[in-house]
Amino acid sequence: MILHCNDRVYGFSVNDIRPAVEQDGVLYEFTHDRTGVKLAWLSRKEENKTFCIGFATIPDNDCGMFHILEHAVLNGSKRYPVKEPFVELMKSSMQTFLNAMTFPDRTLYPVSSRNEKDFENLVRVYMDAVLHPLVVENPEIFYQEGWHYEPEPSGNGYIRNGVVLNEMKGAYSSGDAILQREMKRLLYPDTCYRYEAGGFPEDISRLSYEQLVEYHRKYYRPSNAYIFLDGELPVERILSILDMEYLKQYKREPVETEISIQKKTAPAEAVVPYPSIPGLPEEKAAQMGFGYVAGTFDEKEKLCAAAMLAEYLAGDQDAPLKKAILEQELAQDVEVFLYDGIKQPFLLFLMRNTDKNRRDEISKVLRETLQGIVRCRIDKDRMKAVLNRMEFQAREQEFGWVPEGVGLALKLMGDWMYGLDIMEDLKSESVFTFLRGSLENGYFENIIEEMILSSENQAFVCLTPSEDIMGERLLREKKEINGMTKGWSEQEKGEEAHKLRKLK
Questions:
Q1: Which residues contact 90 (CB under 8 A, 6 or more apart)?
Q2: Which of the listed residues 14, 272, 287, 337 has the most CB atoms within 10 Å of its CB?
Q3: Beta bridge partners of 352
């Protein structure tokens, strides 16, 4: 089918058609006239067809509502009322990727297949799951995927159980999760990033079934949806499925999903406990993070430069910052990385297995190392090698464990929702050309000075080891559960028992 700008195809208007040079394809952009759904199709010679639908999901607490929703909508839908569609698809579909993901400000549902009929079926399954999930009428799905009470094995009282609850308890037994949560809380005190989108274990049980249904009603509507298609696929057929079978029954209902930019704040810090690592002596068991807001999502050259600096500073044993810290035995390892995929990414300097009392020494070495680079200039050969590696990865479209089309969807969905031209995430050559030309003019040194040394948006987090933290969490949870359940009548106990039987 030959498409032109302003064509209308099954309720969709063609807004723009542009060559996607680096993908050797053509980017088509559509809007569904009735609902406002935004759809982009990267047409290219790729037999693995990709579909991804995403929603801007902005948390306003730590209950993990969107993480639970991500699980819950995939537990059967109006058209596919099976208990575990994923399991059935794993057995019967020719899918090459099948998953769903909760991010700090969005939820994505990507799927791919090489078989045309199979792909069409997967599109239907995913569309029905997100728009017509059984969970909005069946609270048992919420109890199973979110949380519920059940009797302790000993018969003495109750415990809380649930898929997401247990998943996040596992996540927060890790120091990395604790440190990143604290860092985002300190760096972004006035935005949605101060909340844990996945759900903080102690807050998940504050979410009710009625609240979950309301979050679905508010955010999982077509007017808040973004759809990405990739590969050789029958686009007219896919558009007809989307419109005729799903979208035409809805109308345009705008959703407020604007994320504010964090204003400058005073440097913040926190010292928090984390589960101690067996075998590590206390004087080497602290974990330290120095975080700096790197910029905004649309500053592509600046953010790429920050990612390059991260590898330059700590990418191997000869990297200047890692070498300086290790030679002075201030930590057992150093990692630097750009935490992106949010509206304001941040640069994190992580000192692993250190002494909590050596913060000033570490901070001094960090600043002196960076000041030395600014004063004496970067090692151009080393930075050029970093640039070459990153450019090669971008050119080869390397996305690790996910298929290329899915990788592209994950890469561009966030920026697209923030309002960036989707083409900006499909081209990288201009960014690397700019950075290659900036090796000689002090650009990277200026980035170090502005982003780190003179930063007005920075935070420090120190994790101190605790052998008691897990036990203390259990005691707090037990006390809270007892307070909630000790006054239950026999009727209420019977209702909980009935609820539990329906989950088995």
A1: 98
A2: 287
A3: 333
C-alpha span between 291 and 344 (Å, rounded): 12
Tokens 């898929």 -> residue: 163
Is the CATH number 3.30.70.250 carried by domain 8-143+205-249? no
Helix axes 300-314, 380-395, angle to 10 degrees: 120
pLDDT digits (tens, 9 = 90+) for 313-354: 999 999 999 999 999 999 999 999 999 999 999 999 999 999
H or E segment and range at residue 136:
none
Catalytic residue numbers? 70, 145
Q: What is the mean pLDDT of residues 248-265?
A: 94
Residue of 3, 41, 1, 9 lying closest to 25 (CA atoms): 41
For residues 64 and 181, give the distance between their C-alpha atoms in angstroms, rounded to a whole number.
13
Torsion sign over Cα 199, 205, 209, 211 = negative
Q: b or e along 56-78 (b: 16 or more beta carbons within 10 Å of the residue's beta carbon)?
A: bbbbeebbbbbbbbbbbbbbbbe
Judge whether 418 and 340 are in contact, CB under 8 Å.
no
Residue 1 scores a pLDDT above 80: no
User: Is the CB of residue 199 less than 8 Å from the CB of residue 64?
Assistant: yes
Average of per-residue pLDDT across 167-188: 96
The sign of the dihedral angle between the CA atoms of 344, 345, 347, 351 is: positive
Degrees to nearest 5, angle at CA 89 with 164 and 244 = 100
158 SS3 class: strand
Residue type, 499: K
Domain spanning 268-464: CATH 3.60.40.10 = no
Question: What confidence tens digit (pLDDT) does each residue in 484-502 have?
Answer: 998 898 898 888 888 888 8
